[in-house]
């Protein structure tokens, strides 16, 4: 569903991702762990087409993301191609990123109406469905500022789901929350992880949670995958010294 082949990303002279190879299978749940500044957010932002790449190729759902084929040639992706590709994915950010001047319901219906061309009625039905899923049905007419951080992040998840993506990306979805609000957001994500028809790529420092929900853990450092495998292996008996050192900081 996601495939990075020799992907290089630089900011100025600094190489952030160095010929990264990385795959996520359809419906697989993968968690990326790693130190701050190792390139985790950059991977997700590249997938969302918020950042471009300098070299390599990325496929999403079998199609090249940053390229397209035209007249038997590979050319840089057009805005139209990127728009089509973005429909495969939704992302939940650390800082909720809700529209502050819109009600909860409108936050959710905005993309379905304007990007996916649903009618107001269809979009409202979707909003109700996903607000119910995240347990916030009674807050539909409130503004984000009237909600707790945990509730805002649950709205952000409902909003991300409302475009019916095949792939959900989460970038440290609980890092900005007070500790007592982390659980309610994780339990929503856990429910999503139980869906068999959703591909999930998650960045988190919640190791216990990652262990429970992931099919695979990828430890990255300095833009490279140092070690990957099933959670029991990576957490219980990490092979690489760098993984061991990183995990020790969480005990
Ligand atoms: P992580 O999410 O693992 O903490 P990031 O992917 O956010 O790491 O960042 C990786 C590196 O790229 C960091 O050193 C960061 O400072 C740098 N970086 C990220 N975004 C930019 C940017 N827009 N301009 C310059 N450097 C950036
Ligand atoms: Mg980050």
UniProtKB/TrEMBL annotation:
GO terms for molecular function: ATP binding. It comes from the Bacteria. Gene3D superfamilies: P-loop containing nucleotide triphosphate hydrolases (3.40.50.300). It is a peripheral membrane protein. Residues 2-247 form the ABC transporter domain. Transmembrane segments: none annotated. InterPro entries: AAA+_ATPase, ABC_ATPase_HisP-typ, ABC_transporter-like_ATP-bd, ABC_transporter-like_CS, Ectoine_EhuA, MetN_ABC_transporter-like, P-loop_NTPase. Keywords: Amino-acid transport, ATP-binding, Cell membrane, Membrane, Nucleotide-binding, Transport. SUPFAM superfamilies: P-loop containing nucleoside triphosphate hydrolases. It is found in: Cell membrane. The keyword Membrane applies. Belongs to the ABC transporter superfamily. PANTHER family: AMINO ACID IMPORT ATP-BINDING PROTEIN, GLUTAMATE_ASPARTATE IMPORT ATP-BINDING PROTEIN GLTL. This is Ectoine/hydroxyectoine ABC transporter ATP-binding protein EhuA.
């Amino acid at each position: 569903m996601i495939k990075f082949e020799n992907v290089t990303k630089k900011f100025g002279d600094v190489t952030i991702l160095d010929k990264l190879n990385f795959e996520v299978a359809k419906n697989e749940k993968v968690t990326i762990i790693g130190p701050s500044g190792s390139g985790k957010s950059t991977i997700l932002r590249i997938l969302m087409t918020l950042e471009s790449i300098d070299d390599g190729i990325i496929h999403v759902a079998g199609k090249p993301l940053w390229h397209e084929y035209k007249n038997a040639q590979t050319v840089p992706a057009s805005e139209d191609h990127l728009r089509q590709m973005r429909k495969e994915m939704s992302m939940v950010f650390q800082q909720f990123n809700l529209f502050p001047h819109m009600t909860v319901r409108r936050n959710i219906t905005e993309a379905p109406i304007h990007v996916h061309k649903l009618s107001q009625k269809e979009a409202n039905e979707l909003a109700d469905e996903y607000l119910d899923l995240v347990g916030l049905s009674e807050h539909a007419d409130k503004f984000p500022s009237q909600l707790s951080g945990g509730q805002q992040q649950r709205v952000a998840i409902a909003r991300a789901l409302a475009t019916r993506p095949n792939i959900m990306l989460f970038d440290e979805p609980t890092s900005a929350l007070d500790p007592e609000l982390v659980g309610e957001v994780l339990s929503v994500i856990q429910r999503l992880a139980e869906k068999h028809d959703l591909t999930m790529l998650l960045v988190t420092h919640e190791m216990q949670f990652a262990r429970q929900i992931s099919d695979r853990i990828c430890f990255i450092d300095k833009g490279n995958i140092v070690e990957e495998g099933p959670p029991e292996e990576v957490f219980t008996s990490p092979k690489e010294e760098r993984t061991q050192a990183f995990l020790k900081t969480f005990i």
